Amino acid sequence: MTRSVGIGGGTVEIEYQYHFGLPRTVVWKYIKNDKVLRNALPGCKSFAQISTGVYLAEIQMNMGPIQDLFKLEIQLDGEKEPSSFRLKMKGNGNLDK
Q1: Tens of pLDDT along 84-93?
Q2: 3-state secondary structure of 76
């Protein structure tokens, strides 16, 4: 999964992977469920679908001494069923102000 968050006019990209000890078809069935997807996002405070594969979310991000609540639009991208997909996120937080 890839997270891109705009900070001060630039872009910060945070990338990570998670490996499940289950068959891919089982994981794929559940990971695209809205409730499961929300719980898979660390620091997620709110999460609502606005259209197919597009969500609005508030995520508390803590990176060392930097902490902020980001309001994000999240889009499912690059689906390769049943092995992978990306989450593209764009939005802002208080650091932008």
Answers
A1: 888 888 888 8
A2: strand
Extents of the domains making up the chain: 2-96
pLDDT tens sequence across 31-77: 888 898 898 888 999 999 999 999 999 999 887 888 899 899 999 99
Query: Positive or negative CA dihedral for 73, 45, 93, 18?
Result: negative
Does CATH number 3.30.530.20 belong to domain 2-96? yes
Q: Which two tokens stand for residue 25?
A: 């078809």
* The dihedral formed by the CA atoms of 40, 43, 46 and 49, expressed in degrees to the nearest 10: -30
Backbone angles phi, psi at 28, to 5 degrees: -60, -40
pTM of the model: 0.73
Count CB neighbours of 7 within 10 A: 14
